[in-house]
């Protein structure tokens, strides 16, 4: 075991919405990754009796990082380290493995939906023993520790390549190289009726799944091709590549434009879906129909009876604050509680652990349930397929029937990505200082009922999280929300969220950009966003 000294501590290892995310080059800097791992291990207790899961989404630097982490774990006498073959493990599969193996936690090497490769991004996420992302108390502790570290311990021993299964003993640490796929697909098989889905898909209901050259390719092939017996070409971009083949593995209409074109313009398939780099996000498309992720959560909640894993009912639901209230309408009808949390999956952990909720989701293409403690892209895809197989209808019919029953929450998110930090902070600061005066004033033809910076008290441990996003709520319950992203690595990303409810008697077939126009225009008039950013349109519109 060597103790490596470094000249001056790193002061910038503050985890964001979901782990520490930096450019790949930053993570290639000498000692940078090692120090962060040392800080993580110092934040965990009882390493000597513990199991740790380590895997990643296969992006540039994945295997090298896993090697270093295993060597640092050996130096810290971690009892057992579990690594998947080829180092590939999706975020939801990691969450499941942590729970199944009673591990103390897991380290996921991923910058999720950010591009990969030497010019892209890299990241490290820590999940704790419940399988979910580490809460702020722990990430703050890690950040503090990282700023003080001037050395770390490592055992620079030759490790096997991670291409074969096996068990190895190094000093007091056991290294297990396992199959990262089977446990996860078995879990899916317990929740869903694979036969019903595959029969449906073989009878004239065509599927295309886009893995975006990222981690879900092998999982999707295992489930759709090997288990369900569908033709291999139902999975596109199915081989994980270090740079995702140049794709930006963020499943939305801008970055998954090829898939969007196949479904929305060419109408070549009945159903299309995509996942992000680490497999926790999902986009759902039908022929000629895009499903807004907020609506997806509402549809999932309204249709639990179609899915074997949830037939016995659900205890409650939760959504992040910027997610539309579509799911609230369903929860009210089902007479179950609906919680509103800050952005980021870590806020769902306590609610799931205490069985206050069964399902949860975010507007950012994330949906999940109590089967793991992460959002789960393939789970959402299978859920949708099961509902469609049970109802035998198209995605657009399902959406229309849903809106006819519950009304439609027109919703859109506008992202201004990687704009100059000072501009983003200026816009955010301007709105912050206007909040007090906006209350009672008119906005988009309505009175402003609430104008505040969202803060959250966790109902389980009473911890408080402040400054979680600026919001205006109007007297018709329309909402406008402004946040700064906590996952970007270049400049700053400004997110604007717009929501307006139409009841079933109103027009349910508008383009959301038209339905929301008064809100969009008035926010721009208030904050001068297009002028200050010098952008006529946002980078991404969802
Ligand atoms: C974004 C999303 C948020 C999500 C987070 C992590 O955060 O808005 O809803 O939980 O990414 O997703 P932000 O701070 O950039 O808005 V992932 O797929 O990166 O783990
Ligand atoms: Co992700």
TrEMBL record:
GO molecular function: magnesium ion binding; phosphoglucomutase activity
GO biological process, one term: carbohydrate metabolic process
Taxonomic superkingdom: Bacteria
Reaction catalysed by this enzyme: alpha-D-glucose 1-phosphate = alpha-D-glucose 6-phosphate
One Pfam family from the record: PGM_PMM_I
N-terminal signal peptide: none
EC number(s) stated in the UniProt entry for this protein: 5.4.2.2
Major enzyme class: isomerase
Domain named Alpha-D-phosphohexomutase alpha/beta/alpha: residues: 13-145, 184-285, 294-406
Necessary cofactors: Mg(2+)
Gene3D superfamilies: Alpha-D-Glucose-1,6-Bisphosphate, subunit A, domain 3 (3.40.120.10), Alpha-D-phosphohexomutase, C-terminal domain (3.30.310.50)
Coiled coil region boundaries: none
Keyword entries, A-Z: Isomerase, Magnesium, Metal-binding, Phosphoprotein
GO cellular component: cytosol
PROSITE patterns: PGM_PMM
Family assignment from sequence similarity: Belongs to the phosphohexose mutase family.
Protein name per Swiss-Prot or TrEMBL: phosphoglucomutase (alpha-D-glucose-1,6-bisphosphate-dependent)
Organism per entry: Prochlorococcus marinus (strain MIT 9301)
Lineage: Bacteria, Bacillati, Cyanobacteriota, Cyanophyceae, Synechococcales
Gene name, Swiss-Prot/TrEMBL: pgm
């Amino acid at each position: 075991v060597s103790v490596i000294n470094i000249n001056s501590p790193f002061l910038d290892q503050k985890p964001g919405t979901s782990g520490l995310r930096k450019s790949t080059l930053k993570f290639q800097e000498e000692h940078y990754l090692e120090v962060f791992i040392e800080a993580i291990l110092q934040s965990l207790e009882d390493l000597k009796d513990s199991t740790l899961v380590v895997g990643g989404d296969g992006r540039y630097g994945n295997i090298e990082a896993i090697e270093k982490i295993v060597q640092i774990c050996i130096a810290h006498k971690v009892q057992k380290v579990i690594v998947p073959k080829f180092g590939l493990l999706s975020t939801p599969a990691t969450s499941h493995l942590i729970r199944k193996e009673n591990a103390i936690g897991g380290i996921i090497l991923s910058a999720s939906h950010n591009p990969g490769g030497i010019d892209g991004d890299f990241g490290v996420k820590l999940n704790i023993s419940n399988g979910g992302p580490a809460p702020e108390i722990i990430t703050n502790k890690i950040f503090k520790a990282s700023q003080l570290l001037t050395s770390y311990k490592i055992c620079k021993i030759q490790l096997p390549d991670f291409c074969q299964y096996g068990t190895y003993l190094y000093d007091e640490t056991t290294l297990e190289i396992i199959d990262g796929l089977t446990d996860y697909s078995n879990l899916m098989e317990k929740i869903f009726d694979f036969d019903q889905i595959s029969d449906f898909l073989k009878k004239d209901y065509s599927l295309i799944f886009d893995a975006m050259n990222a981690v879900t390719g092998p999982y999707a092939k295992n489930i759709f091709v090997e288990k369900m017996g569908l033709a291999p070409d139902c999975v596109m971009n199915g081989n994980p590549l270090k740079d995702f083949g140049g794709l930006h593995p963020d499943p939305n209409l801008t970055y998954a434009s090829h898939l969007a074109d196949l479904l929305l313009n060419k109408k070549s398939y009945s159903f299309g879906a995509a996942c992000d780099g680490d497999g926790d996000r999902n986009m759902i498309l039908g022929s000629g129909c895009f499903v807004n992720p907020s609506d997806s959560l509402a549809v999932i909640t309204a249709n639990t009876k179609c899915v074997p894993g949830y037939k016995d009912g659900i205890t409650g639901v939760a959504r992040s604050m910027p997610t539309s209230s579509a799911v609230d309408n369903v929860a009210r009808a089902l007479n179950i509680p609906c919680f509103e949390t800050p952005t980021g999956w870590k806020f769902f952990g306590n609610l799931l652990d205490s069985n206050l909720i069964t399902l949860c989701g975010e507007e950012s293409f994330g949906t999940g349930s109590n089967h793991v403690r992460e959002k789960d892209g393939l789970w959402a895809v299978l859920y949708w397929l099961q509902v469609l197989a049970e109802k035998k209808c198209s995605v657009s019919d399902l959406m229309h029937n849903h809106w006819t029953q519950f009304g439609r929450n027109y919703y859109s998110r506008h992202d201004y990505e990687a704009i100059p930090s000072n501009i983003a902070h200026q816009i955010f600061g301007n709105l912050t200082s206007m909040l007090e005066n906006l209350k009672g004033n008119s906005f988009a033809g309505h009175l402003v009922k609430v104008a505040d910076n969202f803060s959250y008290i966790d109902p389980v441990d009473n911890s408080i999280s402040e400054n979680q996003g600026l919001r205006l709520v109007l007297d018709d319950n329309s909402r406008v929300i402004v946040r700064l992203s906590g996952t970007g690595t270049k400049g700053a990303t400004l997110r604007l969220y717009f929501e307006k409810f139409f009841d079933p008697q109103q027009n349910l077939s508008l383009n959301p950009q038209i339905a929301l126009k008064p809100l969009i225009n008035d926010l721009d008039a208030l904050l001068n966003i297009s002028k200050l950013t010098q952008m006529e349109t946002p980078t991404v519109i969802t």
